[in-house]
């Protein structure tokens, strides 16, 4: 059976992707890796290697050792943290991608997944139902690294035939692993406050609408895209993925339907400017057409599953 390597497997997405792929294909075919060790659950669930995604030799050694044919490159510095360390973010986000693109070019791996983000869009992009192809002038270092990464992915596909596939994830919401420093983290923190009976102070304004998605939908999309026939994949930069759009106010109202005493106030910080530069909603009709993409979770089901999950995880 072909083997898969997940780099950045201890993160918010990597940990759930690892668990889902191990359930689907068996634990020994899915090799988890990260620059640090992860939760006890992840470490006990199958093979794990400590590796630095920016170190080509280390990455190549692990790939050759396990005879890996597919890599999911999930290591990156996210939007909020990247604004604090722009050069570090650039170095990590670009070098980790080049390493795997070059390993694929040298035919040491056959398939590559690399995540992009709605951060590729900027203040001059149409904000509502942002189309697949549109103006892209990102104003954050994170967005610049993702847009550049998309261009390189498409280039490696066209020039060298590298089978690289990508999704522009919206803000991802989950409770199993803490978020990694993004601008949409408020939509996770809010559930922890609601469950603990605390007042939540949102770092975004009440009317800031952003595209969001429950983690199960994001994992489903990632696996469906990677399993799709190559001739269906017409976009080799990165696919728009929509999900649901809501504001902090709308999310808090949906939470109040289940936790009536929940209270929220607003104290925007530097992440407000990042959020203001991003789309409010995304048109993902190209992903629907090319590989039958369809999301399952709406705002109500997302609130139900998050409240239940957070409650169980802290009890
Ligand atoms: N979470 C979201 O809402 C979201 C939205 C859009 C795009 N994305 C993208 O998805 C990917 C994964 O995001 P996430 O939310 O899981 O991030 P995360 O910060 O939770 O996880 C990233 C993981 O990468 C690891 N890492 C950092 N530097 C490394 C290195 N040099 N070598 C190996 N591992 C290293 C970290 O230890 C961490 O476990 C990133 O590319 C991110 O930009 C995430």
Automatic annotation (TrEMBL):
InterPro entries: Epimerase_deHydtase, NAD(P)-bd_dom_sf, NAD(P)_epim/dehydratase. Residues 5-234 form the NAD-dependent epimerase/dehydratase domain. GO terms for molecular function: L-threonine 3-dehydrogenase activity. It holds the Pfam family Epimerase. One of its GO terms (biological process) is L-threonine catabolic process. It comes from the Bacteria. Belongs to the NAD(P)-dependent epimerase/dehydratase family. This is Nucleoside-diphosphate-sugar epimerase. It comes from Psychroflexus salarius.
């Amino acid at each position: 059976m072909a083997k898969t390597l997940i780099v950045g497997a201890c993160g918010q997405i990597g940990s759930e992707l690892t668990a889902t792929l191990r359930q689907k294909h068996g634990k020994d075919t899915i090799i988890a890796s990260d620059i640090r060790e992860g939760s006890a659950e992840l470490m006990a669930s199958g093979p794990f290697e400590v590796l630095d995604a920016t170190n080509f030799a280390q990455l190549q050694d692990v790939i050759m050792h396990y005879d890996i044919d597919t890599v999911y490159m999930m290591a990156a510095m996210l939007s909020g943290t990247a604004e604090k360390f722009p050069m570090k973010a650039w170095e990590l986000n670009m070098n980790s991608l080049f390493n795997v693109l070059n390993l694929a070019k040298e035919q040491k791996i056959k398939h590559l997944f690399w995540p992009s983000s709605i951060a590729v869009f900027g203040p001059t992009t149409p904000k509502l139902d942002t189309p697949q192809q549109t103006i892209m002038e990102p104003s954050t270092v994170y967005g610049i690294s993702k847009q550049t990464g998309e261009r390189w992915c498409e280039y490696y596909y066209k020039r060298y035939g590298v089978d690289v596939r990508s999704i522009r994830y919206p803000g991802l919401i989950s409770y199993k692993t803490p978020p990694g420093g993004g601008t949409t983290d408020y939509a996770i923190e809010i559930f922890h406050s609601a469950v603990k009976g605390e007042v939540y102070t949102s770092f975004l304004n009440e009317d800031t609408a952003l595209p969001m998605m429950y983690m199960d939908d994001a994992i489903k999309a990632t696996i469906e895209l990677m399993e799709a026939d190559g001739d269906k994949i017409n976009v080799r930069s990165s696919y728009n993925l929509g999900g649901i759009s809501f504001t902090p106010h709308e999310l808090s109202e949906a939470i109040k339907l289940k936790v009536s005493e929940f209270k929220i106030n607003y104290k925007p910080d530097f992440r407000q400017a990042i959020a203001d530069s991003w789309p409010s909603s995304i048109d993902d009709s190209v992903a629907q057409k090319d590989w039958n993409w369809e999301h399952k979770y709406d705002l109500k089901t997302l609130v139900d599953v998050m409240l239940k999950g957070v409650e169980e995880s802290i009890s």
